[in-house]
Design a protein that fits this description.
It contains 6 helices and 2 strands; from the N terminus they run ααααααββ. By secondary structure, it is mainly α. The relative contact order is 0.04.
Length: 163
Amino acid sequence: KLRVDLDHYSKKVEDMNKSMNKTMSKGKSINDSGVDKIKRNEQKLIQARQEYDRFVNDLCGFIEEIMDRGWKDLHPLLVKMAQFDSTLSNEEAILLKGSMSGVTEHLKGMGAKYPGLKPMGRLKELETWSLESLNKVNPASMRSESPLMIEQGGGGSARYLTS
């Protein structure tokens, strides 16, 4: 609104000055009502400029406040979030402590059932293998006992088959 007023009076005063200059260049005099009218609009322009400058100055101060010191407003929120995360993780650890020990023991027992199972996993090893070498290590006859197989038709989408 302030910028609109400033632009309005700037244009209005400019147009009135052009009109007065044009009239004076023709050798005619400006009547008193025209002079009063331009003085009133010049005063309104000065007032609009002052209000606009004051607002811009206040806005710059506000932006500076946010940019320089806004983190202080977030600090209490960050503290509360950290406290919440700490409390939640402690409560989850207490809840899972008893139930997870059974899962852990079951997973450790899988090593006896599958002798090739390595404690460190095979991801680093698999990274260096090619598809052909995987087929040689695990021939199709060994994979047929897998409970999950993929059937792929000619040009169709793949679908899972369960035995």
